[in-house]
């Protein structure tokens, strides 16, 4: 889904890998905001995705 958490995380990962700092920072901020407001169940559903993002950012969350 366009604008969904999966799309935002994938875009952030792409931006980090391709030195697009502006795009990466914008998406990381959006993802961090979404993570703060997710239920535990929703966070669990996206756990693998968040692990990839955290590994790419060194554990920083936006």
Order of helices and strands: HHHH
* Structure class: mainly alpha
Number of strands: 0
Rg, nearest Å: 11 Å
Q: State the end-to-end distance.
A: 22 Å
Tell me the strand percentage band: under 5%
Low-confidence stretches: none
Total number of helices: 4
Oligomer: single chain
Characterize the largest beta sheet: strand count, sense, and whether it forms a barrel.
Answer: none
The count of domains is 1
Portion of residues within helices: over 70%
Mean pLDDT: 91
Which of globular, elongated, flat, extended, rod-shaped describes the shape? globular
Task: Tell me what the structure shows.
- The protein is mainly α and 62 residues long.
- The protein has one domain.
- It contains four helices and no strands.
- The chain has helices at residues 5-17, 21-36, 40-45, 47-57.
- Helix 1 (5-17) runs antiparallel to helix 2 (21-36) and helix 1 runs parallel beside helix 4.
- It is globular.
In short:
With 62 residues, this protein is an all-alpha fold. Helices cover 74% and strands 0% of the residues. The mean pLDDT is 91.
């Amino acid at each position: 889904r366009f604008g969904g958490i999966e799309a935002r995380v994938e875009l952030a990962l792409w931006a980090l890998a391709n030195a697009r700092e502006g795009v990466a920072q914008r998406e990381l901020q959006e993802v961090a905001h979404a993570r703060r407001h997710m239920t535990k169940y929703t966070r669990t559903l996206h756990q693998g995705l968040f692990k990839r993002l955290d590994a790419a950012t060194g554990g920083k969350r936006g």
